[in-house]
Design brief:
The protein is of the alpha+beta class. The chain contains 5 helices and 6 strands, in the order αβααβββββαα. Helix 1 runs parallel beside helix 2.
């Protein structure tokens, strides 16, 4: 893994950082290093997915879901993901990756990543994730219960959040 030091940093930050709510937002801050750059001298597209991976695990550790899901023998897997880019992240620029749960359906949990530089959104990513065991995909009801969430399902949250961010990205 080419982000091994950042992964170690993520585990330290998650272990000792502030807790977050499962329906809240987790955040992890990085700096764009020369090894994150492409030929255009800005953060390469593949790094967004890597930082999203770290941010998702950080989010699950901070809200306690990681420990409960792993104790149940469940492993997270992505079904798909899409990123929309608005602004480049420059060399040595500091940025924060936030992760939040948008909603879920009968098979998938939908997550949102925001890549924020100063007060601007550089990119967003919407991920579709499931949790599996050796026997196959775990039922979404089990996942939600293990995450410790007892509130109502945020039905329209995903469409509204993505539509709002789409407007931001077009600005």
């Amino acid at each position: 893994m080419n982000l091994v030091w950042r992964m170690i940093w993520m585990f330290i930050a998650a272990r000792f950082g502030a807790r977050c709510d499962i329906m809240g937002e987790g955040a992890l801050t990085f700096r764009c290093l020369p090894t994150d750059l492409d030929f255009n001298m800005h953060m390469t597209n593949s790094r967004y997915a890597s930082f999203g991976d770290l941010s998702r695990v950080n989010f699950m550790i901070r809200n306690g879901a990681w420990k409960r899901l792993r104790a149940a023998g469940l492993l997270p897997v992505l079904g798909s993901g899409t990123y929309r880019y608005r602004r480049a992240i420059a060399p040595f620029q500091k940025f924060t990756v936030t992760t939040s749960v948008l909603s879920w359906d009968d098979k998938w949990v939908y997550l949102l990543h925001k890549f924020i530089t100063k007060d601007d959104i550089a990119a967003i990513g919407v991920m579709k994730a499931a949790f599996v065991t050796k026997a196959g995909r775990a039922p979404i009801e089990q996942i939600v219960a293990l995450m410790g969430y007892t509130g109502p399902k945020p039905e329209s949250q995903i469409a509204k959040e993505v539509a709002d961010l789409d407007l931001v990205l077009k600005a």
